[in-house]
Design a protein that fits this description.
- Helix content is 36%, strand content 21%.
- It contains ten helices and 15 strands.
- The chain has helices at 13-24, 77-85, 120-139, 159-163, 182-195, 210-221, 231-237, 240-246, 255-261, 270-275; strands at 6-9, 29-33, 43-47, 61-65, 89-97, 108-109, 142-148, 150-152, 168-169, 176-177, 179-181, 198-201, 208-209, 228-229, 251-252.
- The protein has a seven-stranded parallel sheet with strand order 3-2-1-4-5-7-12, sandwiched between helices. It has a two-stranded parallel ribbon with strand order 6-15. The protein has a two-stranded parallel ribbon with strand order 8-11.
- Helix 1 (13-24) packs across helix 5 (182-195).
- The termini are far apart.
Length: 277
């Protein structure tokens, strides 16, 4: 019996990494994308636009959904359109954000923590989660939602910002933050497709101060460390979007992913992950 087809909804960096591993195992692989990136052998690309419901095929089998919600609202009409067009789906893995927890004052956060998003982008992700949970319950689909922090990896480092010498907040005043190497996130997606059900925090398991990330990237790239400024100065100089990240502090507990998925980061620290970039 041949394995069920796997669909990648969105074909960005993480989906491409997952797809590369699936192709190597001979799984029938399809991707839905409105982009025009090159299609590797073994993948069937279906041009479609989640903002145009009439263009969507009836996806079935196994699904990894990485497409972001459309900006500008606190709901996700793209998810609504996808679910209305979907066929029978056996398992669906959705990449959400740890931003749904909002500011936790630096506390350790597990999946039992009630969501309290502070930004519209996090509210959109929470809306998508709610849509999926209601739909999966009705359809009998096994659903795994991965709550993911900042992703880094080759081609995903803030090198341009560092080259420009833009300042960062003094680490003594910076919030706790979390991250995940792109290859580890791809591994988590595959594990969730095989055995996941419910909510999972996914990170490298080693939180640090947000500004430490920029300083470590500078050292890794051989660039000058950025100047440090106070919170008062940051509020006058940083963009509203960057400030929104600095206003949230939490440390992700990934015990459930470790116990239920068997997830163990290959790059459990920022230093190990940067060495692989």
């Amino acid at each position: 019996m041949s394995p069920p087809a796997t669909w990648l909804i969105g074909h960005g960096d993480i989906a491409a990494r997952v797809g590369e591993r699936l192709r190597a195992s001979g799984v029938p692989l399809h991707a839905l994308s409105r982009g025009s990136r090159p299609t590797p052998p073994g993948l069937t690309l279906h041009p479609a636009d989640l903002d145009q419901p009439d263009s969507l095929p009836a996806v079935s089998g196994r699904v990894l959904y990485t497409a972001p919600p459309a900006p500008g609202a606190e709901s996700d009409p793209r998810m609504q359109a996808f679910l209305q067009a979907a066929g029978p789906i056996e398992v669906l893995v959705y990449l959400s954000t740890s931003g749904v927890y909002g500011d936790c004052g630096g506390d350790w956060v597990d999946e039992q923590r009630p969501p309290a998003p502070l930004t519209a982008r996090a509210a959109r992700r929470l809306d998508a989660e709610s849509q999926l949970q209601a739909w999966a319950g009705q359809q009998g689909t096994r659903l795994a939602i991965l709550r993911v922090p900042g992703i880094y990896g080759p081609g995903r480092l803030p090198l341009e910002r560092l080259r420009e010498g833009r300042p960062v907040l003094d680490p003594a005043q910076a919030p706790w933050s979390n991250r995940i190497h792109a290859e580890d996130l791809a591994s988590a997606c595959l594990l969730a497709m095989d055995r996941g059900e419910g909510l999972y925090n996914i990170s490298d398991g080693t939180p640090s101060r947000m500004s430490d990330y920029f300083l470590a990237c500078a050292r890794h790239a051989g660039l000058a460390e950025p100047p440090l400024i106070s919170w008062e100065q940051a509020q006058a100089q940083f963009s509203p979007q960057l400030l929104s990240f600095y206003r949230e502090s939490r440390r992700l507990d990934i015990s459930r992913a470790r116990q239920e998925l068997g997830f163990e980061p290959r790059y459990p620290t920022l230093e190990a992950g940067l060495a692989a970039c």
